[in-house]
Every structure is written in structure tokens, then in C-alpha cells.
Write a structure and sequence with these properties.
By secondary structure, the chain is of the alpha+beta class. The chain has 4 domains: about 5-180, no CATH class; about 190-230; about 230-375 and about 415-539, no CATH class; about 375-410, no CATH class. It is about 45% helix and about 20% strand. It has 20 helices and 20 strands. The strands form 6 sheets. Strands 9-6-8-7-18-15-17-16-10-13 form a 10-stranded antiparallel beta sheet.
Length: about 550
């Protein structure tokens, strides 16, 4: 079917609108392509997606454009891609920025993202991240609409104007960091909801509505919206200490060794759960080890400690005895979507806490490390399946077999006994700095614990000797502000800047065979540690 005058007028209007939007949003001159028509070209989304602008000419099918709005998105993508290529000399960067722009013009967003994902499939990067542009830009769009793309394009264009040309590897890391740190403003009602959920994960929507003075329906709407934006995450986690797995937090500092040595000593460690790079000073590593409680397994930990000391690495080991998660959203300004931390007030409070010994006046409510509960092998297998993502009775029954009634009873009991715990987390709200605080002096530890009540989010742990290890998440500039506030403490705490968190290959399924159903406890690890210790001995 040939294109009529109305279709031609619509196409011209599309082009003019797209060019005007590019000028207004990105402040760059758009190209003006010449349109050619092909009577034999298919007009399916898959065919339209493959359209490419070449030498300022673009070939489109002869069709009723009113019935094929997907074409408008493709035209927007190609016009911006070629306009950006005149400034940014990297087609990978330009293509994905333009694909994100084109998505804004189509209603069939699922189809658009699917075709984009086929063109640019997810890949593992050298930065230990997954590069998936379609998924990343979908998340950014859900988080803040077109504003996220505007900010990203502006940042990339500034780099190009400063003579900074990104390689593909540079771009992959840049996009990952941008998406990880991007934040979107929260309303005062959303802040109240988050505060209530994080303090009491099992609170009802009705109760939240009463405290926030809004309807239950509106509470549900706001929670759903925050989940869609990925600012609010709800999940259920297995509490390892409840099943006889001891959790040790280990800080490795290079000393006479190097940062690469700190990383290397954990190669092939079967107990590694997570790790973060310490990115300040001589650098180092903060690792969490999860060790099934058996005397031989604990000897592995001691052998590891002696090995790293031998090669000149300073090691600090904490086992959680008392813990708390503190929340303080009072310093968030919902009108402007920013945090207003009063570090001067926190500094004064720090001085007073030490001078007048006021730390006990600010009680930090901590929980003792929970004692293991009575479990059998089917409980362990259920928990392993649950950790893999099988959450419903139906899914669990397929994975571990057995009667639905038995699985239902076990699942309910494990939740009642806090073996499975509901957790809410916040993301993309401007808490982009992660700090590790260590206080070996008990008095300093008390003060840091008291001051954690003033921080947006903090995870506070005390060991049996009342040493403190705290992870806290702060807004931009917050680590400097917190360090300055602690400057006059004697002795001061150690404050380290943490990098990206990496998860090891740890999973309960790897340890099931070590469960002794007769004693209800863990046997020595059947996993071979020879390679790990041979590697440690070779360093």
C-alpha cells in the first residue's frame, strides 16, 4: 500500500517534533534525514527495529504510519544516534542512549525492550558487573522517567567536550555507576511509610495509614510505586545464626603486603559470603565469612588468620554478639529530594558524649546473637530451596517433594521462629556512600553506637569484648562529615570507605550433606579446602 498525503504529513510532523525535542532536551543540533520509501519492506516491529540511518538517509516502509507508531520510536532513535555520533565517537554509547530516547515514543515498551535486549544481550564485564543496557535503562526510566536520560546524556556530552573519549569498558562501568547512584525524590508520605516498614517489617498497611494519616489504599499505591521504581525492596532472608552458621566479619589491611594479596587470600575460600573493597589508604578488603559451626571448620578460620598474618596482612576479625539496624530519616528533605545532615550538631553531640559520658543516655537497642533452633534435614532442605527462590508451598513441594500440609507447617514454624525473616531495604534515595566504622575501644564503641541513631541507615555489631563494627550508608559527602564529627574522640574510630559489594558463590545447598540429622548440628565441612590452603601456603 502506498503512502498517502496524510501519512506523509504525519511523518514530517514526527520528524520535526523529534528534532525539536532533541534541541530542547539535549542542546545539540539534530540531523535532518532524507526519507526514502520501500514498498516491499515489512512493517512489523521486528522489521522496523532493524531500520538504520545511513549517510543522512533512512529507508522506511510504505504504510499507514498512523497504524505503526513503533516507527516513530525507531526514527527518534536513529536521529539522536547519528546526531550524537557527531560529538561522541563511540557507537555503543550513542546507540544505547538513543535506544532509551526512542523508547519514550512507543507504547509497546515490552516489545521495544525485548528487541533491544536481543540486539545488545547481557554480558559479564571486566569490572565484575553485568552489562545489560536494556534492563539498566528500563530501571532508570521507571525510577525517574526521562529526567534520568537527560542527566546521563548531559554527563556524557560534557566528557566529550572535555576531550574524554570513553572506551566500551569505560562506558560499561560509567553506566553501572550512574544507575547505581541515581536517586529519585521521595514524598513525605513515602518517607513515613519507609520508616515504618524498616522499623517493623511485619506492620500492616492499615497501621501505616493511621500513622501517616493516609488511607490504606494510598499506602498500597505508594508501596507499589516505590517497588516499581526499585527504591523499596521487600525480601525474605534465612537468618544463618538461627541454623548454626556462625558469621564472621573480617577486615584485611595490606600492612607489608599488597591489596592484591588481600584479594588473593580469599581465592577458593568455601566460606566466603560477601566482600567489599576498602578504597581508602593502602586499600584492603572487608569480607563476610559464613562458617557452619563445627570445631574443625572454626580451626579453618584460625589457620586462615595465621596464614594472612604470616604474609604481612593485618587482620581484624569480628563475630557478631549483639547487633542493631538503626534508621533515621529525619534529615531527608522531601521538598527538594536531598539529605540535610547537620554534621556540626553531630560533632557537638560526639564531644558531649565523651566529655560527660552521656553514651548510656542514648540507649542503642541491640539484639543478642540468636541461638540456633531445633531443625531436621527436611528443614535444612526447605531453607536451601527457599534461598534459591522457591517461595510458595507449590514451588517448594516441586523442589523438595512431600505433602503440602507438611511444607506449610514447616514454613510457618520457620517464620515464627525468625529463621526466615522479612526485610525491607531502600535504594536510589541518595545514600551513595558506604563506610565501615571500627572501634576497638569500648568507650569509643559506645559513642559510635549512640551516634548511629543520627545516621540515615546503619548496621551496628558488637562482639563479646564490646568492640564495634558498623556499616553505614550516607549521602554524598557524608563520610567526610562523619569523620570530621568523630575527629576529637580519643581514641578515634577507624573509618574506611567501602567500594562495591560482591557476593561469593556461597549457598546453603553446598552444605546440605554436612548436616547431621541425628545431632541436629553441622559436621566438619565435606567441601575440599585443600586448594584454598595450598594457595595460602604458596603466598
Amino acid at each position: 500500500m502506498g503512502h498517502d498525503e496524510n501519512s506523509a504529513d504525519l511523518l514530517r510532523k514526527w520528524l520535526e517534533d523529534i528534532k525539536q525535542i532533541i534541541i530542547e532536551r539535549f542542546h545539540i543540533p539534530p540531523i535532518s534525514p532524507t526519507i526514502d520509501f520501500d514498498a516491499n519492506m515489512n512493517s512489523t516491529p521486528e522489521s522496523l527495529w532493524r531500520i538504520s540511518l545511513d549517510n543522512d538517509r533512512i529507508l522506511v516502509p510504505e504504510c499507514d504510519f498512523q497504524k505503526h507508531p513503533f516507527l516513530r520510536g525507531v526514527l527518534a532513535r536513529e536521529i539522536l544516534r547519528c546526531s550524537l555520533l557527531k560529538i561522541i565517537k563511540n557507537n555503543e554509547v550513542c546507540y544505547n542512549l538513543a535506544a532509551a530516547f526512542g523508547r519514550e515514543f512507543v507504547k509497546q515498551s515490552k516489545t521495544w525492550y525485548s528487541l533491544w535486549n536481543e540486539t545488545k544481550p547481557p554480558i559479564d564485564t571486566s569490572h565484575q558487573t553485568v552489562y545489560s543496557p536494556s534492563m539498566t535503562f528500563a530501571s532508570l526510566y521507571n525510577l525517574d522517567g526521562e529526567d534520568a536520560l537527560d542527566e546521563l546524556v548531559d554527563s556524557i556530552l560534557k566528557n566529550s567536550r572535555y576531550g574524554i573519549d570513553l572506551t566500551i569498558s569505560d562506558w560499561q562501568l560509567f553506566l553501572y555507576r550512574f544507575a547505581s547512584n541515581y536517586s529519585s525524590a521521595l514524598s513525605s508520605a513515602e518517607i513515613t511509610i519507609i520508616d515504618e516498614l524498616m522499623r517493623n517489617p511485619e506492620i500492616s498497611k492499615t497501621e501505616i495509614g493511621k500513622r501517616a494519616d493516609i488511607s490504606q489504599v494510598w499506602v498500597s499505591t505508594l508501596i507499589s510505586a516505590m517497588k516499581k521504581r526499585r527504591q523499596l525492596r521487600e525480601f525474605e532472608s534465612v537468618v544463618y545464626s538461627k541454623i548454626g552458621i556462625r558469621v564472621f566479619q573480617v577486615v584485611l589491611e595490606p600492612g607489608q603486603a599488597s591489596y592484591s594479596d588481600c584479594v588473593s587470600v580469599l581465592n577458593w575460600c568455601p566460606y566466603l559470603y560477601t566482600s567489599n573493597a576498602v578504597v581508602t589508604g593502602k586499600r584492603g578488603l572487608f569480607a563476610t565469612l559464613a562458617i557452619p559451626d563445627n570445631s574443625e571448620n572454626i580451626l579453618d578460620l584460625h589457620r586462615f588468620i595465621q596464614s594472612v598474618k604470616r604474609i604481612g596482612i593485618f587482620v581484624n576479625v569480628f563475630e557478631r554478639h549483639r547487633s542493631a539496624r538503626t534508621i533515621s530519616l529525619d534529615s531527608y528533605d522531601p521538598d527538594n529530594g536531598i539529605w540535610r545532615m547537620d554534621w556540626n550538631a553531630i560533632s557537638l553531640e560526639s564531644d558531649l558524649l565523651q566529655r560527660d559520658e552521656w553514651a548510656p543516655v542514648f540507649p542503642l537497642v541491640t539484639e543478642d546473637a540468636p541461638s540456633p533452633v531445633d531443625l531436621d534435614e527436611r528443614d535444612i532442605r526447605l531453607l536451601s530451596a527457599f534461598e534459591k527462590g522457591y517461595k510458595t508451598v507449590r514451588e517448594l513441594r516441586k523442589e523438595i517433594r512431600g505433602r503440602s500440609s507438611d511444607i506449610t507447617t514447616r514454613l510457618s514454624r520457620l517464620k515464627d521462629e525468625d529463621v526466615i525473616r522479612k526485610i525491607w531495604e531502600i535504594h536510589h534515595v541518595g545514600l551513595n556512600e558506604s563506610a565501615l566504622v571500627i572501634a576497638n575501644n569500648p568507650d569509643t564503641a559506645k559513642i559510635c553506637g549512640a551516634l548511629s541513631l543520627r545516621l540515615p541507615v546503619a548496621y551496628v555489631d558488637f562482639d563479646t569484648t564490646n568492640r564495634l563494627l558498623m556499616r553505614t550508608f550516607l549521602p554524598q559527602g557524608g563520610i567526610h562529615g562523619f569523620a570530621s564529627a568523630m575527629a576529637k574522640l580519643t581514641p578515634p574510630p577507624e573509618i574506611h570507605v567501602l567500594g562495591q559489594r560482591y557476593h561469593g558463590a556461597y549457598h546453603l545447598a553446598l552444605w546440605i550433606d554436612d548436616w547431621d540429622d541425628r545431632t541436629g548440628a553441622w559436621m566438619p565441612a565435606s567441601r575440599d579446602t585443600t586448594r584454598w590452603f595450598d594457595h595460602l601456603d604458596s603466598l
